[in-house]
Amino acid sequence: MAHTQEECITNLLSMAQRARRIVSGAFAVEQALKGREAVLVFVAADASDETKKDYTILADRYKVPYLEGLDRETLGQCLGKEYRAVAALTDKGFAKKLRELMKEP
Predict the structure, then answer these.
(1) How far apart (Å, rounded) are the C-alpha atoms in residues 85 and 76?
(2) Is the dihedral of CA 66, 54, 5, 37 positive or negative?
(3) Does residue 3 have a pLDDT over 90?
(4) Averaged pLDDT score across all residues of the chain
(5) 80, 18 contact by CB (below 8 A)
(6) Are 44 and 91 in contact (CB under 8 A)?
(7) d(CA 23, CA 78)
(8) What contacts 101, CB < 8 A, 6 or more positions away?
(9) How far apart are CA 83 and CA 63, in angstroms?
(10) Which of 36, 75, 92 is CA-nearest to residue 59?
(11) pTM score, two decimals?
């Protein structure tokens, strides 16, 4: 059964949420970065330019990969929230798989 790229990404992020290997929201993501727990920063494609700029800088400062995708509502739904503009994976396996999925057409 074929899944779209978006379905695969949302499934992966939902699994990460159930496994407690992802944090979401501005404060939690910043704390994960500062605590060196974050291994990948994921920002919603429709987040504000200011948010994107801030997290690009933070990800660069802590030498953590940065990806953009989904929209705030979809990102929030797969994390069990109303909407989310930013999330950070704290597990290398989930981060590696997400990076692979994002490269697919």
Answers:
(1) 8
(2) positive
(3) no
(4) 94
(5) no
(6) no
(7) 12
(8) 5, 8, 9, 12
(9) 26
(10) 36
(11) 0.93
Residue 24 one-letter amino acid:
S
**pLDDT 10s digits, 35-78:** 999 999 999 999 999 999 999 999 999 999 999 999 999 999 99
Residue among 8, 15, 33, 21 at smallest CA distance from 100: 8
> Following DSSP, what letter does each residue of the chain receive, concatenated?
----HHHHHHHHHHHHHHTT-EEESHHHHHHHHHTT--SEEEEETTS-HHHHHHHHHHHHHTT--EEEES-HHHHHHHTTSS--SEEEE--HHHHHHHHHHHH--
Assigned token pair, 75: 């990102």
CB 43 within 8 A of CB 66: yes
